[in-house]
Amino acid sequence: MHSSNLERSDEAHVGFGIDIGGSGIKGARVDLRTGEFIGERIKVATPQPATPTAVADTVATIINQAHWAGPVGITVPSVVRNQQALTAANIDPEWIDCDLSDVFSTAVGGRECAVLNDADAAGLAEVAFGDPRAQQGVVILATLGTGIGSALLTDGTLVPNTELGHLMIQRPRRSGKITLVEAEAYAASSVRQREELSYKKWAKRLSHVLSEYERLFWPDLFILGGGVSRKFDKWGPLLEVDTQVVPARLRNRAGIVGAAMAVNRGIRP
Ligand code: BGC
Question: Could you say which residues form the signal peptide (predicted)?
Answer without folding.
Answer: none
